[in-house]
Amino acid sequence: MFRFALAALAALMIGPGAALAQQGPLHIEIDEGVIEPLPYALPSFVAETGGAGEMAAQISQVINADLSGTGLFRQIPENAYLQRFSSFDTPVSYADWQAINAQALIVGGVSTSGGKVVVKFRLFDVYSNQQLGDGQQLAASPQSWRRLAHKVADVIYSRITGESGYFDSRVVYVSESGPKDKRLKRLAIMDYDGANVNYLTDSSTIVLAPRFSPTGDRILYTTFETGFPRIKLMNVGNVSGQLLPEVPGTMTFSPRFSPDGNSIVYSLEQNGNTDLYKMSASGGSPARLTNSPAIETAPSFSPDGSRIVFESDRSGGPQLYIMPAGGGEPTRISYGDGRYGTPVWSPRGDMIAFTKQAGGRFFIGVMRTDGSEERLLTASFLDEGPTWSPNGRVIMFTRESPGAGGGAQLFTIDISGRNLKKVGNAGGASDPAWSPLLP
Amino acid sequence: MNFAPKAVILLAVLGLAACNNPDKYGSGNGVVDPGGAYGSGTGDGSVSQGSISDPNSPAYFNAAVGDMVHFVVDQSTLTDEARNILAGQAKWLNAHGKYSAIIEGHADEQGTREYNLALGARRASAVQEFLISQGVAGSRLRTVSYGKERPLAVCSSEDCYAKNRRAVTVISLGAGS
After folding, report:
1. Does A117 contact chain B (CB < 8 Å)?
2. Any A CB within 8 A of B45 CB
3. What residues does the OmpA-like domain cover (chain B) (predicted)?
4. Which of B9, B42, B112, B161 should one mutate to test binding to chain A, selecting the residue with the greatest count of A CBs within 10 A?
5. B126-137 per-position pLDDT tens digit
6. Structural domain for A132, as ranges
7. Taking the CB of residue A172, how many other CB atoms lie within 10 A of it?
8. In a domain, A2, yes or no
9. How many domains does chain A have?
10. In sequence order, what DSSP letters do the residues of A34-66 get, joined into one string?
């Protein structure tokens, strides 16, 4: 069932004792660009049953890593805290937290019993002397303890920023090993923070550019398992896959789901010419969306499913174009210097992330859907292939270092251009695709 | 919550391992490892290379005729040098009807992954069209692109990029279909 079948993760509101849910002044407006992270306190969650101490400490650590990792929050070190919580219900002494300049306080408790981990937490607005939102209780099996922590962090992030979080999510990517001219590639899936890596294929053949279905239960990718690039559709739950049908003598690659999950847009190459096609995810004959002697590839749907942004070299070098989802006359949107590729529509629908090449370097950037307000967020020898966090605030991408010993790693950057971070997995990795927020 | 144990995942993917992969990535020196870079491709596609001194051997084709042509940045146009090599390839293929060929197109690392896959296909197709124009039956030729996935040279400067922008004609047994 893997980790997507998450029905068992139950959330409850915690009743009495909790103040009324009320929006206090504790708030970060992300759009304003947060330079100074909001200081918060999170005393290690109270172990409410015997033996829950280690779990409580680990969950606290993951919540802190999530929150601090955004660059929007800063944890005040625990040794500065004046008040200790012997119980989850210990009354908050606001003055003690104001004294250390904590703006937010998170108090939690962890219990383990009957094969379940239960986490309770409350968020307090220190300077308003009140609780922010209801307390919540979440339960899951012990293997899913990291998800519990991510869920708590998502709620806290959401209450303070007013936006949905992105911590309880996963990334499918290509794990890389071996020398540059004999690179071994295999499909892998991990938590957004690099934890819980699972391999979905072995390394016997080249695999490229996986993408999640809108519900995260299926993955599309390109495989060379027949000796030629072909598209494969994998069910994440049982890791079973099937090659999509194709016209003999053609190559197919660059597959993407439509936002409703019912159709697949992809590149088909015949006699050296690559165009975009669309087929139903359940089979049926493909429809041709573009018809030009140029290369058309790297499609990405708008979130409402009405339009597709893609890469084409019909004007000479590769540039970005938008067309209706059923095909039709495309409009060019990229006009800056250099070459533009791998456009990806943001989950909010207002921006397009892309790879740009200019002056012998690669950049990850974003622009409005009409091509205006282009901003480059990163620059290096080779940055490529952006993917959006579920809330559209962070972009993950591949960064490859040069030379014979060069290798690929995954990085994230805020769309503000701040907080560049390597995603914490040890080995080589490329072609990330971020899942939706898990249910 | 139900977790798929790792063993199940491994079992599921082992089934994919047995495939007939024609890739050779371009030897250029007459010594083609029929096992390919990963020990795959030992199925029907493998062919005995023979001796370089035997003009009827694939080894001779690779080394003496030349199995590889190179391209200018972003281009799939054949240079004069490429046309000379391909004319030799066509002559050899026309004289050795028991063989067919897979033409591999490649790109350097200065491009995005999926675009380079399409660019490699354009290059392979340019070679295929030229060979057909020289009398080789199209049914004996197939193309594949590796994009930037299989560089021959691994440095990150133009001398390596120039070697990697290539199309390689890989000889296989069979007169095609």
Report:
1. no
2. yes
3. 58-175
4. B112
5. 999 999 999 999
6. 10-161
7. 26
8. no
9. 2
10. --SPEEEE-PPPEE-STT-HHHHHHHHHHHHHH
